[in-house]
């Protein structure tokens, strides 16, 4: 085997024979680092013959999923843990990944599986201190402070566990590759070793991955392609709320979210996030409106706030927290041109309360409502929920799962829903008044009569 040196982009995994200042693939500056790789000649590695199966012959392994008992976690996974699956949990340092996984470990062990928690970042006594805080008792959780994946595998040959936790992939290394732990080749290789182990032995493996500043899992997006499920643990360190979001899942739907609260004694599930996100709402203030957005299969009611104020400077300012900035500009344009509400010259800020990120277009109409309410200084009736997609012609377009959204509003005691006309006749909830609107103008006339 020959050693050769390659320059590999630490952000996206692109490799080049010589150094470049800018990665031609992801356009990142100064992301290429030199790594030595063994250039192995292309030979057959396995002697066994491959035999394709006929689709009809394949026996369907009925998902022997098991539940961890942490409902929010199980839902995000698509209904429990699939043995043999590899789950990557990404997030900023300090957000609570180790805490979450230690709590998951505890729950798994109470279901009579033993768990091996491999930490490359903390010593056993540090983990012990954390477990004391979390009140994790002496269940069969085994702690291993180790970073060599080869040594870990050797141990795993001798002892079987019901689940593995690897905290974090950036600290693991295999001696087969000479570059440093955390580099693209190491991360890729150690992850595929774990993947092979998981598949071969039908053992679930949870991998922690740190996230870089720009939001991608450090060491690379290649990691996201290898694993079965990618979950992001998000939240603002200033807020106690944490959201676990699935962005890829081979065993369930994506965009599913779980909501937790970080307390003194660890993470607590938030079973009813809608009432949480609305708990600090001041009813009757201008610029605030409630929307039901859909996160995966789950409707969540949140408050959207807007502030429209006259701009002291020549160039008006715009700010968007929790909603897409370009979408906001588009909606301001629609208000100006199609409805004749001229806010273009004003400073405009929009904020989603509680640190949620709303990405679906169904929130368009509520952004428009909040903007208009703030601009006119007229509060929107606090028992009203608004949702609908807005088109460039000023029309209100239908959204998915309107019924689910209206039901959630009804459950939390809202009295009126202003929704797209197209959806209005499909609703069979009779505890709320449902008003269908076909244009933005139409909706504004109803809200601010
Ligand atoms: P941690 O799980 O170490 O984060 P990560 O593994 O993602 O880097 O969580 C660290 C933060 O969580 C730390 O700032 C303290 C806080 N925390 C609590 O508030 N309560 C607790 O019970 C625990 C264990 C941690
Ligand atoms: Mg940690």
Describe it for me?
- By secondary structure, the chain is α/β, with parallel strands linked by helices.
- It has three domains: 2-39; 64-271, P-loop containing nucleotide triphosphate hydrolases (Rossmann fold), CATH 3.40.50.300; 276-448, Ribosomal Protein S5, domain 2 (2-Layer Sandwich), CATH 3.30.230.
- Helix content is 27%, strand content 27%.
- It contains twelve helices and 21 strands.
- The protein has helices at residues 71-76, 97-110, 124-134, 149-158, 184-201, 221-226, 273-278, 325-339, 364-376, 402-411, 421-424, 440-447, and strands spanning 2-9, 15-16, 32-39, 86-91, 115-119, 141-145, 163-167, 205-210, 229-234, 241-249, 257-263, 266-269, 288-295, 298-310, 318-321, 346-352, 384-386, 389-390, 396-397, 416-420, 433-437.
- The chain has a nine-stranded mixed sheet. It has a four-stranded mixed sheet with strand order 13-14-16-15. Strands 2-1-3 form a three-stranded antiparallel sheet, with no helix packed on it.
- Helix 8 packs across helix 9 (364-376).
- The radius of gyration is 26 Å and the shape is globular.
- The N and C termini lie far apart (78 Å).
- The model has no long low-confidence stretch (mean pLDDT 88).
- The structure holds thymidine-5'-diphosphate and magnesium ion.
- Magnesium ion is lined by residues 97-98, 121, 167.
